[in-house]
Design a protein that fits this description.
Elements: H1 3-16, E1 32-34, E2 40-42, E3 56-57, H2 60-66, E4 72-78, E5 81-88, H3 91-99, H4 104-107, E6 113-118, H5 121-135, H6 138-148
Antiparallel strand pairs: 1-2, 3-6, 4-5, 4-6
Length: 150
């Protein structure tokens, strides 16, 4: 490698791997890479901040085009308000289920956007709990109170 290429490579690595999360909204995940449409996927070494993720339009076409058929967490939102945060072994399947009316309690809030984060099962469960506790989405609170009998 030439000196110029090594220097550029070092700069790229320094930019990609933050030393510590800046606040509790960030979570250490197995890594994060930005795809061409700025959707974050998980791999070792990055912190994913849901508040700053690009939000994708919640339509069937957008879900089929952008959501992976992989394990992870996903969120539905309207503007700056989180409607629902879920997790599934197949993110695309879960979002398509919502669009087909299988989450009727979320339909009344009419979410317009979605985000997702690819994670393996054990990390997915912990990340889901962390996101729900922090953002307190409307429908997660409703389902919890219905399930607990309150």
């Amino acid at each position: 490698m030439t000196k110029r290429i090594r220097a550029e490579y070092r700069k790229m690595l320094a930019f990609q791997v933050p030393r510590q999360p800046k606040d509790p909204l960030h979570s250490r995940v197995i890594s994060a890479k930005l795809s061409s449409n700025s959707v974050v996927s998980s791999e070792e070494g990055f912190f994913v901040d849901w508040a700053n993720l690009q939000r994708l339009t919640l339509t069937r076409t957008s879900v089929v085009r952008n959501a992976p058929e992989e394990s992870g967490v996903y969120g539905l939102c309207t503007g700056d308000e989180w409607v629902y945060i879920g997790h599934n072994f197949n993110i695309r399947k879960a979002l398509l289920a919502y669009l087909s009316g299988q989450l009727p309690y979320a339909l009344e809030w009419q979410p317009k956007h979605f985000v997702f984060e690819r994670l393996p099962y054990k990390k997915r469960i912990a990340r889901h709990q962390e996101l729900v506790a922090h953002y307190q989405p409307i429908c997660n609170r409703k389902t919890y109170s219905v399930a607990s009998g309150a």
